[in-house]
Amino acid sequence: MSTELNGEAKAATKNSDSAPKTNPIERPLALRSVREEHPPKAEEHTPQRILVLGATSGIAEACLRLWAARGDSLYLVARSEDRLNVVAADANVRGAALVETAVANLDDLEQHPELLAHAVNALGGLDIAFLALGVLGDQTDAERRVEAATQVLHTNFTAPVSLLTWLANYMSQRHTGTLAVLSSVAGDRGRRSNYVYGSSKAGLTTFVDGLRNRIDRDGVRVMTIKPGPVRTAMTENMKGNAKFADVNDVAAALVKAIDRGTDVVYVPGIWRIIMGVIRAIPESIFKKLNL
Amino acid sequence: MLVSALSTEGGRRIDYPVAMPSSVELEFDSPPSNRADQKPSGPPPFESWGRYPSFPAELKHLHWQTDFPRAMDGAHHGALAVGMGRSYGDVCLLKDGMLLETTGMNRLLAFDPVTGLLAAEAGITLAQILDFAVPRGYFLPVSPGTKYVTLGGAIANDIHGKNHHHAGTFGCHVTQFDLVRSDGRRLRCTPELNSDYFSATIGGMGLTGLITWAQIRLKPIVSRVIDYVGTQFHGIDEFLDLTRQSESVEYTVSWVDVTSTGKNFCRGIFMQGDHARTPGPLKPSGKPKLSFPFELPGMALNSVTVGAFNSLFFKKQMKKQVTMQQDYEPFFYPLDKVLHWNRMYGKGGLLQFQYVIPWAHAKEGTIAILQEVARSGLASFLAVLKAFGDVPSPGAMSFPKPGITLALDFPIKHDKSFLLFDKLAEMTREFGGRLYPAKDARMTAAQFRAFYPQWERFAVYKDPALTSGFWERVVGGQSGVRGGGR
Questions:
Q1: Is B110 in contact with A238 (Cβ distance < 8 A)?
Q2: Is residue A29 part of a domain?
Q3: Model's pTM, two decimal places?
Q4: A178-182 and A221-227 as β-strands: parallel, antiparallel, unpaired?
């Protein structure tokens, strides 16, 4: 009963990005001042139990630092033990209530049920699952070798589908929880320069959107997160990355959006407009561009 | 905790995706074809704070401790780890070499709330450490004039602060670190373990290897507030009197007007402060809001404008003495309020000059140099005067020693300020003093060897694959081997 009420309460606050801004807590992101005189008090925050899949990705790490600092419990999964260890140490020092780690290659789908069950048991339940696994791949390689293309699709699409299926079934039974999935603006339109990566994210976006339509009514928030270019290790060799969004600003926006359970999040918000324009270009013209 | 977090012992190589191929792009403005042969042109990828000199280089970012040394594969002209680029001259530059920027390596690794021992990766900034430590009742053991420097840079330049007469240099508070050599060897360095590398690396200008993480001892505080006293002085004798009277005060520093002559010669404000002992709020700092938006034309700073600024600054403090409570931010980091303040000096950049002259000649040397600066008519504001104490640094190449230190900055004017600089450097040598490599772009090889006669012993610990613009200037050319070291 109480979980149902919880679900209703959350349902009432969703879609807040399109609703009139009456609640001062839900000011638009652009107006969030960096000079908060009174930062939110720790006691106002109910500690969350958060599973982070792909915890050593730049965006995930920046988010989990914020979660750690406010005392949430974290279960971190990543491929590299060395990297995972320092990320976990950092979360621990910053004040996470609990930090558990698992080294896993999430490409191996057979491990998923056991891994996820272990995470839920270690956290004593699950409030938020943040899926940040993914690879950029090498477009030119993927154009020549089908193995390279299918590898990108497997890591960016098939593996999250497997994880989300388990998590969705767990959460919808409990009528609570948030599934926050990192997709990309690159999935909003196929472009010549990175359509393999883009198609993996397009598939993921569609899957997550559909999943939301299935289980939102069960009280589970499902979020499609579409970052524009962000300055992280993944993008460091890209031209012009000095102008990319700062990962800490992106993380601050994401943590806030995940608290609200916003359906579709573009970060920074300007990318909602940019991608609206990109999508509006007729294909007859678009195919002649070098995007 | 620390051991488990830092379990990459023994130089073990870990497989990781080194670098994403440059042919994959997300941005929307460039065709995929014309990339391969783009040579870096225009501004250099990395500038020092003085913006002089300026060298082309290849810039790579380190995100993980295990990225090094593999990240420097393909470096043909040496490599150098760099942080925030807050040193003024060429200790953080390398012409045509590879710069390994460390600020992505910025994780906290362990903290003991009882002892204040904090371990963190070397690319973390002192600002990030303060954001973590102040709400927990701890402060940096030594604060430089800006908090936007990395932990690794603070060690590599063995930085000092207003409490040098009490606390010594930053290196005095470093309890251990890992040093990774270009051959992959990982050395745990403490005052006991690999103590020779420990000593060479503190103040070692980043040349002994990559510091991947370090542990420092923070100091407890109960408030953000500094109890501040500012006192006007006229002349070096009054400065020395105030220095003696305030020996028990933790932080002391003076601003001195180097443009005035006659009765106003060597006038200044002696600033002292202690952490408040009454418990107060320990909330974290806000973000800086101002950024110097553009480069001023080179002529904007001249003897008239700087003289007027200096007069204003002196007279802003109307009374002989002012006592007040001040937040630590404006006390320690007044210039951090304006990001990119170095743009004020225009495109040409600025030249810093900082000497220390031992007590034997400290007074006469300082007077002679101040007279020379005043006579030159070359504008300098923000001249900072301080007496160093006698706490020894563990660093073999550390700059501070007991005596008087003075830091000046000049706009770059190739004819005039370089001549003045060279003259001041020679005077410093004659008075038995030395210059600070982190603030230097001009000292000669002969001067360096006179300032740091221990340099040859230090060079033994230098990593053969690492070098810097500074090292090439004062040593490399002479030894005939780029890089040198073993």
A1: no
A2: no
A3: 0.86
A4: parallel
Q: Is residue A54 part of a domain?
A: yes
CB of A83 within 8 Å of any CB in chain B?
yes
Tokens representing B182 are 């270009």
The single residue listed with the structure tokens 């709400």 is B135
> Which residues between 105 and 134 in chain A have a beta carbon less than 8 angstroms from any beta carbon of chain B?
none
pLDDT (tens digit, 0 to 9) for every residue of chain B, 486 residues total? 333 333 333 333 333 333 333 333 333 333 333 333 344 455 678 999 888 898 999 999 999 999 999 999 988 889 999 999 999 999 999 999 999 999 999 999 999 999 999 999 999 999 999 999 999 999 999 999 999 999 999 999 999 999 999 999 999 999 999 999 999 999 999 999 999 999 999 999 999 999 999 999 999 999 999 999 999 999 999 999 999 999 999 999 999 988 888 888 889 999 999 999 999 989 888 776 667 767 766 666 676 777 777 777 777 776 788 999 999 999 999 888 777 888 877 778 888 899 999 999 999 999 999 999 988 888 676 789 999 999 999 999 999 999 999 999 888 877 788 899 999 999 999 999 999 999 999 999 999 999 999 999 999 999 999 999 999 999 975 444 444 444
Q: Between A89, A93, A233, which is nearest B63 by CB?
A: A233
Query: Nearest CA of chain A to the CA of B132: how many Å?
Result: 8
- Cα–Cα distance, B37 to B17 (Å, whole number): 24
Neighbouring C-alpha atoms within 13 Å toward the C-beta of B10: 2
Q: Is A240 on the interface with B (CB under 8 A)?
A: yes
In a domain, B22, yes or no: no
Using the beta-carbon criterion (under 8 Å), do B65 and A136 form an inter-chain contact?
Answer: no
CATH number at residue A237: 3.40.50.720
Strands (E), chain A: 49-53, 73-78, 98-103, 128-131, 178-182, 221-227, 230-231, 245-246, 264-267
Q: Among the options A75, A170, A197, A266, which is catalytic?
A: A197
Give strand ranges (E) for A173-228: 178-182, 221-227
Q: Does some domain include residue B48?
A: no
Full domain range(s) for residue A55: 44-286
Which ipTM value was assigned to this complex? 0.84
CA–CA gap between residue B463 and residue B455 (Å, rounded):
14
Tell me whether residues A82 and B30 touch, CB distance under 8 A: no
d(CA B301, CA B315): 20
Q: How far is A215 from chain B (nearest CA, A)?
A: 32
Q: Do B24 and A194 touch (CB under 8 A)?
A: yes
For tokens 């951090």, the residue is B336
Residue B274: domain span: 225-449
Domain CATH for B357:
3.30.70.2520
Q: Which residues of chain B does A39 touch, with a Cβ-Cβ cutoff of 8 Å?
A: 283-284
Give the closest residue to A144 by CA, choosing from A183, A196, A92.
A196
Is A197 considered catalytic here? yes
| Residues in B lying within 8 Å of A, measured between beta carbons | 1, 4-8, 14, 16, 19-33, 35, 61, 63-66, 104, 107-111, 121, 132, 283-284, 286-287, 289
